[in-house]
Amino acid sequence: MIPATLNGYLAIAVALFAIGLVGVLVRRNTLVVFMCLELMLVASTLALVAFSRFNGTMDGNVFVFFILTVAAAEVAVGLAIIVALFRKRQTIQIDQLNTLKH
Amino acid sequence: MGHLLFNVIALFTLIAAVGVVVNKNAVNASLCLLLSLVGVAGLFVGLEAYLLAFLLLLVYAGAIVALFLFIVMLLDTKGDARPTLNRLPAAARVLAVGLVGAGFVSFLTRGRLPEPDLTKVPALGADLKLYAYQLFTTYLLPVQILGFLLLIAMIGVIVLSKKFEGLEDIK
Amino acid sequence: MSHLPFDPLLVAIAAPLALALAIALGLPKRWSVRLAYAGFAVPLVMALHTWWHFSAQTQTAGYAFLTNYSTGLTGLGISLKLGLNGISLPLFVMAGIVGFAAGLYAIQSQAERLKIYLMLLLIMQGGLMGVFASVDIFFFYFFHELALIPTFIMVGVWGGRDRGYAAMKMTIYLTAGAMISLVGLIALYVKSGATTFDLIELKRYLASKPLSEITQKNLFAVLTVGFGVLVSLWPLHTWAPLGYGAAPSSNAMLHTGVLKKFGLYGLIQIGLPLLPAGAVHWAHPLAWLAVLGNVLIVGLITIAQRDLKQMLGYSSVMHMGYAFLGIAAGTTLGVGGVVLMMVAHGLSVALLFLLATSVHHRTHTFAMDEMGGLAQKTPVLAALFVAATFASIGLPGFANFWGELTIFVALWKFSPAITACAVAGVVISAIYGLRAAARIFFGPPTDHMTAITAKFPPADLRWAERIPALVLLAALLFVGFWPKSLSDPINAALTPAAKVAAAK
Amino acid sequence: MTLEAVKAAAESNVWTAIFPELMLGCIALLLLALEIMLPKRLHSLIPDLAAAGLLGTLIGFLVNWDSASVGTTTFNGLLIHSPTGQFMRAFFLLAAFFVCLLGRIALAKQRMPRVEFFHIVLVVTAAMMLLAQSNHFVTLFVALETLTIGLYILVAYHRTSTASLEAGLKYLVMGALSSGMLLFGIVLLYGVAGNAALPGHTAQGMNYAELARFLAANPNNFVACLGIVLVLAGVAFKIGAFPFQIWVPDVYQGAPTPVTAFLAVGSKAAGFAVLLALCGPGGAFAPCAWLTEPILMAMAVATILFGNIAALTQHNVKRLIGLSGVSHAGFLLLGVVAARQVPSAVGAIQFYLLAYLIASFAVFGVMTHLAGAEDSDQELDHYAGLAKEHPFLATVLAVGLGSLAGIPPLAGFMGKFLVFVAVFKAGHGTSLIIAAIGVVISIYYYFGWIKAAFFESWAPAADAAPARPARTPVGLAAGLALGTLAVASVVLGFWQGPLGSWLVLK
Amino acid sequence: MLQHAILVLGLPLASAAVIGLFLRRSGGVAAAISTATAAAICVLSLILALGGERFEASMTWLQLGDFTLSLGIKFDDLAALMLVIVGLVGLCVHVFSLGYMHDDANRARYFGGLSIFMFSMLGIVFADNLFMMFIYWELVGFSSWLLINHYLHKQSAADASKKAFIANRVGDFGFLLGIVWCYAQFGTVNLTELAKLADGGATIAAGIPLLLFCGAVGKSAQLPLQVWLPDAMEGPTPVSALIHAATMVAAGIYMLCRINALMVADALTVIMWVGTATALYAALCAIVQSDIKKVLAYSTLSQLGYMVAAFGLGAANSTHYHGDTPHTVLVEFGVGAAMFHLTTHAFFKALMFLGSGSVIHGCHHEQDIFKMGGLAKKMPLTFVTFTVGVLAIIGMPLLAGFFSKDAILFLAYVNSTPVFVLLALTAVLTAFYMVRLWKIVFLGAPRSEDAGHAHEGGLTLTAPLVLLAVLSIVGGYGWFYADVFGGAFEDVMALVPHAEGTDHIVILSTSLAVMLLGGLAALAFYKTTPTDTLADKAHGAFGALTALRNSFDRAYDYYVAKVQQRFAMLVNFLEQILLAGVIVRGLAAAVGFFGLGARALHTGNVNAYAYWFLLGAVALWAFAAGWITLS
Questions:
Q1: Are C197 and C266 in contact (CB under 8 A)?
Q2: Is there a smaller number of Cβ atoms within 10 Å at the N or the C end of chain C?
């Protein structure tokens, strides 16, 4: 049982972050990698909200707005790139997208 | 919120997150992401940040994950196709999981912060008016920047996707 | 100040650089070539002017013609401070003379893309004048690098055999040397605590607050290694023969004749007066390295060379050994000898490289085994080459003799054993010098030469080639016959330093 | 929040303080409007307009250099207007101007949509300028993300090229990963700083000054340290410092050349602006120098060595310049390390950056002219014989590369020299040895490039030799710009004048 | 008088400069100028010598710290004697050259070289300190090189000149070290001051005189550096007469006499034995020579050995004891005997060389004595004068060589019996090979067409012969110096030892005996055949002597070709392979290898790149956790 305290929330956030990181490391589907990146961002927002709540400050909560917006923009651009790439290469597998190397 | 509920939601969130990572199928992965986000929104609620929970669902679940799903369907990929993909040695995966896990454990053991007394701290996040004040006074500049950010993101997506007259296009 | 309405040192530096800039900006070829004469003559005239008026100048801390120009970094203690003392004066003059000769030789060479060739040479010339006229250590280094760059391009574009590799190797070696010395100079600047690169100020400051012994040792070691690469101290020398073997003549003349002296000059002007304890500490290892490595080993290697330019390159490396020996000896006599040696070596080796190219034009080979009997066809060339050879092996009457002699005399008190080894080098240099002269010019012509002379009848040295050669030879003889003209200012500049060293 | 507080907060938003940034935003919007309104045949004016706008803004900015806001904080402490920030703003304007000039050439050759490119460049530039003045993690994050997302688009801008898209994707994934780290670091710092149980806790944990005050009270807090290193990781990605440099060659190679230049100069400089604000003298992390300094030092050394060694065997010039840029980041990092103890290091870094800008754009300008229609032909072999065919470009290239290599009398040398002096003054003599080794190694590839351009001649029928690259003739504006860059490289090497005094004595 | 001395030095230098700069193509004018200069020198030197004024003067030439090098002149009786010798012989040779070199295309260079030589040689004579002496020492080496190499197209000339210079340099290696040591020990190298210091009882390490002696070994071609002198005969014959017989090679002896104050007993013993060995060795070699000039060259070597031995012999009784401390005094008699023999030798050997030049000129540059013969009739004047020279050298009484040789034999007799025996033996051999030469060249019938058409040369060729012949006769008599020169060389001549009483008889009889023994044996033994009688009749002896003669050359050739050259090649190989190859290129390759490795790290796979970030994160984490610290 994890107590619903600051450290508890923080642990969940860190765990979420870690899971996202592992996903980026091991997944080869670009889309899934992307999802994992989003997980990392969400983990940050979770920690942010938790800190705001437990520290009694407002800036963290406001910051979440910005993070969400940025994430949306990022995803939009990223998906556009992925689509364009897929149209040229017919794949979104990371290990096949390695024409640029060495 | 009760500890039990917190634990349930937290567990749910994490399991869903793990689902994103381990699911072979991208559609399933995005659905797991959705579930995980819902869980996080639940945690937000637990933290009395109702607006943020709502926004999270709206923006993430409503827009982003939908977009993901849409693209996944559009591109119609079958997840990680096994045979060609297994070029990253399993050892590397183990290493990755091990290192990240070690980091997590190390954080849990060393990164313990003093616990504030929740009852004495006001739940500012629950107050909608404060968001408005902050966004339109203190953080007006970032808001403006974000406006431009969204603009260029939009233009970028257009540039990357639209057919341009007179310019050669994607073959 | 001088009698002139302008600063002769600045003019000597700026004139070639300005002309180079003008050429770069598109001066037509005809004018480029015509003005190049002036571009090389102006530094020479300024140098001779300063030489003539040096003793009559009012001097500050031994420096005459002092002027100071701000370049924007005064706050860091960096400014373009020009001036000459008894040590830099001879080298400044030598740079003027060799530059003039190299310039004339380049103009007559009719090299491909002559304009650019002259432009690069002018940059070198300007940089060289700057090296010896700078009182500010930063600009001293700066001008050296400025003069160094054209070398890479000139070797790479106009070079001979293996020019690509040679240019690359030279570049990397010299950059490494320059970087090490830069680190040393920065360290000196910071460690001294004087927050100035002005040599006069530094000397004054360190005279009252000398650096700790260990700092001096370390700094001197770093400077010696860095400068050692630039001066081709054994075993850091392998770039030199290769590079000179490939370098076009005028570039080789300026590089080996003048630019290479930078490191020695730095050790003398900076290392010895500012880091006396370091100099004393490293004197013996340095001397042994120089005498065994540069003088004996490289001397033997020189004997084994069959390629004329390679041989000249190695011989140049060998002679640098003597210079290090003089620095190791460290007395006024030894160091003064090194300055004389630097001047003399600069003139004689430039002359040799010049003549080697002229020989090549007539033999179409650098392989000495293929040459022979050229003296009958080209007596003037032979005579000049022989004179240059004898100058470089230290025949009295030429300037080189004074350098070697004074170094030997100074060295005996330092270590008789090292002196004996060093003097043995004199025999070695006689062996390879005379052997080369004999192979090229004397005896019956070889088959190769018979074939070549049948195809291209060799003409004797043209006046355009003769004049630069004669300028150099005249300078060698002048110093050879009247060493006081240089030794007096050197003596004046060194004696107080020696007194300080003796007092320690 | 009381009404007074709201009022005070609103009044703190002094928009005139960021007039240049607003100008850029307006010009960016104007460009979009013009695209719609102008007839097709006049569309070619838009790039010129963008460049002119940037130049005008730069000149206006320089004229009003000592405006009232310098030395103050505005926007409730979100921005701080320091001399360093002023310099960086001018720097980014200049960089963007040259990017626009390159973009004019490259886009015309590669037939890509134009207006959007310049629009994004302008917005990104404004973001960089704000980043350089940010005094708060929110501004930092938002500006940084605007910059980054703009660059994602720009990198992938050449959407008919697989390479460009792939580079875009790689940049995006790696960028998002680093953004995630950076963000998490910010969050941790914010959270720790606000913890009421800790001494010196503050509600304004994202404000640099407040954070510094907090860190000074808790220099050894593990979570705070974790936050610091995660932020550093994010910044290290931007500047391409080891081990966050691995994306550099791929992305540089794939991106359109003007964008590569923007990445190499603008993005990197932005990273250093952030780093200076965080780790420099009086920066947010200054109290934790015990942690940041060894990290930055280790990073610097590894970066210098890796960048130079990896560039050594590179044949693709864009990858090469990318890796060389990595090594430059290493040198600059050394300066950042020194900056805390030696005030002149900041000036040195700025001079270095300026010299790097000038030299880089000279080189990128030549690369743009030499690139084929598909931004191909970027191998060293393609430079063979350049000196004979195109002495002007070859000269500019040589000057640029020489300056990058740090050879006197070029500006790059002065930059290195000033940094080295500062580093030595700060007592990091040993790292100078590594730096010196790095310089020596770098000579090899820089001169290899010069060698290709000057010493080698084009071998037409050599086995499988690529077709002779189609070299774009140098236009008047480009010629002028490249000439100015080359001359500036030389002049700044000789004579730093008032700029030098200003930087040194600032 | 100082002006005269400066003029004597300056004239030939000016002459050389003028010829070198302006008269390269005008051989006739050059010859005239050079000869006029020589004449002027001769006159001036006589004036100087007879004027009786002896002086020293110097000016600073170079000063660095406490080191001062002076350009100075020391003119004493010793210098005066040497000056007159050089002046007289120089003039003779110049005049002779006018005729001898008349048809040479490179006359200008030749006469320019002669002028440089005169300058350098006179410089040695006048030098007042060892550095100056060394400077001129090198310069005579250079002019010798120049003149030996006169016939540019001959490989042998090129080799010989190189050999001469390098052999001299080897000697100078020691000489220079000796000078430097001397300076380090005494703080001066001024000859007068050194003599004062030595008289004042300064202790002198034996190394100093021995190292200084090395210079003489090189210049005067003593064992083991004698090899260059026979080869130096590749030069024009007048040059051989002037440089390689009369003056330059004698400079070694002169130098020893100049520094005799520094001599210590041990050093003198070494010098004595070196001289004796050289004398004997060279005499043995001379027997099997067939080239007229080489015979004379070996004879010169032998005579130089005599002089060196004489100088060394002066040592034997020179250690005195002032109380308990040993003290070395001036070596008076050695100087006298050596200088005396130097003088007479200069006359008669120059005479014989010029005579041989006349012969060679007459025989159209034939030098093999077995292709000559019967020249007595064709060239009577040459025959007569050459005969005088031969008689002088073999020690015929009443001729110059007799007196000087007796002085040396007397010293040897008094001081060292083995040396006496060996020198006497040398005298036998000298008589033997000189008479052999004389007989084969001048008697019998011509053995070749060239010899058959031989003829006497013009006045320029014969006049010097006559003058030198006269000098070879009168040069041995004390009155010649006392009366003709008014005792100008008294300081030197007073030191010539004279045997008295029974010693006198012993020496006289010995010298007569050895002369007769050698001369008559040669007369009887040699037939005027086209081949060497010794080779025909005593093949073994001939072979042995030839082998002896060649032994040094062989050894040196072996050293140069097999040792020095191979060692040089080896070092060169090591440099190219080890230093430039393995180390330098290896370093470059290692860096390049890392470069390739670093390049390979860029796999292009984003997952892999993410691992770098992980690596970075872990490292940073470790920093934050304090696991990594950089002190």
A1: no
A2: C
Nearest partner of B145 among D498, D451, D150, C305, judged by Cα: D150
Q: Distance of CA C204 to CAs C74, C76, D4, D40, Å? A: 18, 18, 64, 72
Contacts of B127 (CB under 8 A, 6+ apart): none
Distance from CA of D333 to the nearest CA of B (A): 27
Which of B76-80, D385-389, E4-8 has maximum average pLDDT? Answer: E4-8
Q: Do B160 and A56 touch (CB under 8 A)?
A: no
Query: C171 CB near a chain D CB, below 8 Å?
Result: yes
| pLDDT < 70 positions in chain D | 1, 373, 375-376, 458-470, 506
Answer yes or no: do D455 and C167 touch at CB < 8 A. Answer: yes
Which of E606, E616, E620 is nearest residue D173 as measured by Cβ atoms? Answer: E606
- Whole-angstrom CA distances from D25 to D37, D124, E307 are 18, 10, 105
Q: How far is residue B134's CA from residue B128's CA, in Å, rounded to a whole number?
A: 10
Q: Which pLDDT tens digit goes with each residue over E95-137?
A: 988 888 888 888 888 899 999 999 999 999 999 989 999 999 9
ipTM score assigned to the predicted complex: 0.88
Domain-embedded: residue C186: yes
Residue C1 belongs to a domain: no
Token pair recorded at residue D311: 């560039």
Using an 8 Å CB-CB cutoff, list residues of chain D that contact chain E. Answer: 169-170, 173-174, 177-178, 181, 222, 225-226, 228-230, 232-233, 236-237, 242-244, 246-247, 249-250, 291, 294-295, 297-298, 306, 309-314, 441
User: How many other β-carbons are positioned within 10 Å of the β-carbon of residue E557?
Assistant: 12
Q: How many domains does chain C have?
A: 1
* The pLDDT value given to residue E329: 46
Contact flag D395-C183 (C-beta cutoff 8 Å): no
- How many domains does one find in chain A? 1
Residue in D162, D223, D229 to test binding to E, most E beta-carbons within 10 Å: D229
**How is chain D split into domains, by residue range?**
14-459+474-505
**CATH tag, B1-78:** 1.20.120.1200
Can you give the residue range of the structural domain that contains C114? 8-503
Range of the domain at A25: 6-96
C-alpha distances (whole Å) from D165 to each of A38, C436, D158, D237 are: 21, 65, 7, 20
pLDDT for residue E494 is more than 80 = no
- DSSP string covering E52-111: ---EEEEEEEEEETTEEEEEEEEE-HHHHHHHHHHHHHHHHHHHHHHHHTTT-TTHHHHH
Average pLDDT, chain C: 87
Residue C2 within any structural domain of the chain: no
CATH number of the domain encompassing residue A89: 1.10.287.3510
Is A1 a member of any domain?
Answer: no
Q: Residue A102: inside a domain, yes or no?
A: no
Q: How many C-beta neighbours within 10 Å does residue D71 have? A: 11
Over residues C226-239, the pLDDT tens digits come to 999 998 888 888 88
- 3-state SS class at C167: helix
Chain A residues within an 8 Å CB radius of D249: 100
Phi-psi region of D466 (alpha: psi -120 to 50; beta: other; left: phi over 0): beta
What pLDDT was estimated at residue B165? 56
Phi, psi of D181 (to 5 degrees): -60, -50
- Using the beta-carbon criterion (under 8 Å), do B99 and E614 form an inter-chain contact? yes
Q: How far is B99 from chain E (nearest CA, A)?
A: 8
Q: Say what the pLDDT of residue C343 is.
A: 92
> Is D314 in contact with E599 (Cβ distance < 8 A)?
yes
Low-confidence ranges of chain A (pLDDT < 70): 1
Does E599 sit within 8 Å of A95, measured CB to CB?
no
B27 CA: distance to closest CA in chain E (Å) = 21
Residue C415 lies in a domain: yes
Q: In the C/E pair of chains, how many CB contacts fall below 8 A? A: 151
